[in-house]
Design a protein that fits this description.
two-stranded antiparallel sheet, 3 helices
Length: 260
């Protein structure tokens, strides 16, 4: 004898399943959201990860800018090497000793690199950079570059007399691989319309010369281009420390001259 069993609505739903076919069992439960405690735990984990990763990302960005700046300076070194062959190994002048700004080293090296952005460091925060597509005479209070040349290597310098400076010829420099020609310049108003520095006025102290070199631009270091056209990233004290080390005087580098 066939007995009809009572069927509840929930039982029928379980038998019918999702598609309505018999035999497909579907567990239908109530959807559950996050509790406040779970949400706070997730937020705390995210905050912890950000606290760990952000300093690393910041250091990575600083390192990338330092490498880009050093790469630019190395390309300037390549341009300098080509220029020296054409100029009988005499360095191009700064704006201190030339009437036409287009003749100083910034424009001279541009002719050999074809890349004006080489003269700007990615870490330089200054905004008033010169527009090389306009005449320089029409621009006031602008910044030529993130870098400055060593005036002791100019074609004429009073330290070496009124005549031609012998140390403008890289063949006359005592040890050109230890003599700095280009350093990074601070992004301050002191370097508007200026493209050179005077190490002979530093007088051995550290605080004063640090005002004229961006010695801390790359996390305690700076990039330098030497008279032999190679570039290095160094701490300032590695280039200038009384009375042991001085990479700035062409007649004595890497030592201090007898009469600085």
């Amino acid at each position: 004898m066939k007995t009809d069993l009572p069927r509840s609505t929930s039982a029928l739903q379980g038998i019918r399943g999702v598609s309505g076919h018999p035999g497909c069992i579907l567990w239908i439960g109530r959807r559950r959201g996050f509790t406040l405690i779970e949400l706070l735990v997730v937020i705390a984990i995210i905050a912890l990860l950000m606290g760990v990763l952000l300093p690393s990302l910041g250091r990575a960005r600083q390192q990338a800018r330092k490498v880009a700046c050093l790469s630019n300076m190395r390309q300037m070194g390549v341009a300098l090497s080509a220029y020296l062959i054409d100029s009988d190994y005499r360095l191009p002048p700064s704006s201190c000793r030339c009437q036409d700004p287009n003749e100083h080293w910034l424009c001279v090296l541009t002719d050999y690199t074809r890349e004006q952005l080489l003269f700007r460091c990615p870490s330089d925060k200054a905004k008033n950079f010169v527009n090389w597509d306009r005449p320089l005479s029409e621009q006031e209070d602008v910044r030529y570059s993130s870098f400055a040349v060593n005036a002791l290597l100019d074609p004429i310098h009073y330290r070496y007399g009124a005549r031609s400076n012998r140390y403008n010829d890289t063949n006359q420099i005592r040890r050109p691989m230890y003599c700095i020609w280009i350093s990074e310049a601070p992004d301050t108003d002191n370097f508007n319309l200026a493209d050179h520095i005077h190490p002979e006025s530093w007088e051995g102290a550290l605080d004063y010369p640090k005002q004229y070199v961006a010695w801390n631009r790359h996390h305690g270091t700076s990039n330098y281009l030497f008279a032999d056209a190679h570039a290095e990233n160094l701490e300032f004290e590695q280039t200038y420390e009384w009375p042991s080390t001085c990479y700035w005087y062409p007649e004595a580098a890497p030592k201090w001259p007898d009469e600085p």
